[in-house]
Specification:
The protein has 14 helices and ten strands. The longest helix has 21 residues. A hairpin with a 2-residue loop joins β5 and β6. The protein is an alpha+beta fold and about 350 residues long. α11 runs antiparallel to α12. The protein folds into three domains: about 130 residues, 3-Layer(aba) Sandwich (Rossmann fold), CATH 3.40.50.620; about 80 residues, Orthogonal Bundle (Tyrosyl-Transfer RNA Synthetase); about 80 residues, RNA-binding S4 domain (Structural Genomics Hypothetical 15.5 Kd Protein In mrcA-pckA Intergenic Region, Chain A), CATH 3.10.290.10.
């Protein structure tokens, strides 16, 4: 409802209540692979329970008086935005997150808040608020952010983000993301994101180029296993080995289906297939990809953005499908059903 200005050059898009409710329904399902919620071993709390019905005047009198605007503006998250523009709406974020920590302390005895190191100022605000309002002791623990190859924060609103939701990033694409990390990031990611023994990780230090392929495959497999389970990790690994090793197998390749009712005058456009396979967000973007030579069908480059296929193009000895390739490493099988 209120966006954190940290790391942003402009104000975040405000989500509707319906969008937020949908996101909430997804969080616990995704986190349950990593955190045990059984028997209240972990509790998922919604801060709307205490924020939504606050009386503004009472909140200012009880909580607002505890915050110095001068100190807030000195925080890195606000300093970076002052020249570009920082709204009063966003400035409330630190106060609200600090109040969250206070409420969690009161309701659940929570004394430690964890977060990325971009949240340091917000967490310290909560530590100080607990001290002032409850004479209590609380702590903060921050960790380095995951960043992409350009050094930018890897977040859900950043271009090129990798999602935990298999509907947004398939297990195969998730696996491929980690399989293709920069050489310089492999050892760090193995240490931070997997349970591979440090002694084994140390063996990869100093390796370069093709020598790191084994380490990259291990990284991709271990992270995919944690997020999507062993079966999906093995399918993704086998598919990647097949595609990039022998260039033949398609059994475990990400796939989607079409029928002849999707054809027009006996043909279906390659841009339409790219959109159906979620390899492009729109037909205009799909046409641009084709025009730039970034798309291949069954190993042959698609030459024209208006190119189309007939049912005969889908017929193979082992089924009815075509294999789309976007760029050099993204493969997708489109199956023609009857």
């Amino acid at each position: 409802m209120v966006g954190d200005p940290t790391g942003k050059t402009e104000m975040r898009r405000m989500l509707t209540k319906e969008e937020i409710a949908h996101n909430i329904s997804c969080f616990q399902k995704q986190m349950s692979r990593l955190i045990d919620f059984s028997g209240d071993r972990a509790i998922m709390a919604n801060n709307a329970d205490w924020l939504s019905n606050l009386n503004y005047i009472d909140f200012l009198r009880e909580i607002g008086v505890c915050f110095s605007v001068n100190r807030m503006l000195a925080a890195e998250c606000y300093k970076q935005r002052l020249e570009r523009g920082l709204s009063f709406f966003e400035m409330n974020y630190m106060v609200m997150q600090s109040y969250d920590f206070l409420e969690l302390y009161r309701r659940f005895g929570c004394r430690l808040e964890l977060g990325g190191d971009d949240q340091w100022s917000n967490i310290l605000g909560g530590v100080e608020l607990i001290r002032r309002k409850e004479n209590g002791e609380a702590f903060g623990l921050t960790v380095s952010l995951l960043t992409n190859s350009e050094g930018k924060k890897m977040g859900k609103t950043e271009k090129g983000a990798v999602w935990l939701d298999p509907e947004k990033t398939s297990p195969f694409d998730f696996y491929q993301y980690w399989r293709n990390v920069d050489d310089a990031d492999v050892v760090r990611c193995l240490k931070v994101l997997t349970f591979v023994p440090l002694k084994q990780i140390a063996e990869f230090a100093g390796l370069e180029g093709r020598q790191l392929n084994g380490a990259k495959e291990l990284l991709a497999y271990e992270i995919t296993k944690e997020i999507h389970g062993r079966a999906e990790a093995e399918k993704a690994r086998d598919a990647a080995r097949s595609i990039f090793g022998r260039g033949a197998g398609t059994e475990n390749m990400p796939s989607s289906e079409i029928s002849e009712s999707d054809f027009a005058d006996g043909k279906v456009g390659i841009p339409d297939l790219l959109v159906r396979a979620k390899l492009a967000p729109s037909k205009s973007e799909a046409r641009r990809l084709v025009a730039q030579g970034g798309v291949a069908v069954d190993g042959k480059k698609a030459e024209a953005s208006g190119a189309a296929l007939t049912a005969a193009d889908f017929r193979k000895p082992d089924g009815t499908y075509v294999v789309l390739r976007k760029g050099k490493k993204v493969y997708h099988k489109v199956i023609l059903t009857h």
